[in-house]
Amino acid sequence: MANETLLSVPPGALGAVRIASHSAVQWPSRAARANLVGRPDDSHSNLGWNDHAQALVSHPLDEDGQLQLGFSFETGALVALTDARVTASLELVDADESAAERWCEKQLRATGLESTARAVMPYELPPADYAALADEAGRQALGTWYSKGHRALTKLIERYAGRAVEAPVLRCWPHHFDLGALFFLEEGDPETARSIGVGLSPGDESYAEPYFYCTPWPAPPALPAAPAPFTWHTSGFTSLVLTASSINAATDVDAAYAAAFSIAADTLGLFS
Known about the structure:
Layout: H1 3-6, H2 15-24, H3 26-35, E1 48-50, E2 55-57, E3 67-72, E4 77-82, E5 85-91, H4 97-109, H5 136-160, E6 171-173, E7 178-184, E8 195-201, E9 211-217, E10 231-233, E11 239-243, H6 253-267
Antiparallel strand pairs: 1-2, 2-3, 3-4, 4-5, 6-7, 7-8, 8-9, 9-11, 10-11
């Protein structure tokens, strides 16, 4: 995927469509909370990437493992998928929350599943407003970031999975909307055991644009030079960060990410 495609829309112009999309992905997450057995780490509610549909999708919801609900950046619609293929959709730009809930209930009831009304959400987001999804170029550009992030992170995981206690799993966490994975690098309490978190954020209160991150834990007391174009972020959290505005047509994101991961590991006294 050429970086020119990735940067077809100025990264700083994606804020409104990001907020609307963030609201949209709560529906497949609600469906999972209503129908799947809860896990202590809340991972039953997270989402995977379907590149064919350019969509973030739930875990399979039915006993046969076929039905998933998701949100497609390509079409701006909630989607139902059977065997990973879209079988029904609801465009959200002219919909409200009641319409979205009714559509989800129809898909779920048809397979004997529980309504999203049964879900108990452990966090709150601002009221949904899907009008920004009319920005087709912005919406699809944001989907391209997730697609690029999925590919880059998958390569990183394949390269370094053998260094982790168990293979990291790449998922989107609907509360913060980031696509990420965690490398546990030793056994023990996750609060103290060494780890490296990697991922793509579509933007947040720290950066009003997409960015890749590589976060060593515990936060190292001394920081070595960052491998350009990554830089160190130290306000609120300590992480190597590669912002969208730091990427140009010549940037090799995969190589940059591998260098950042190596530096993060070095700060933890690993792999040296």
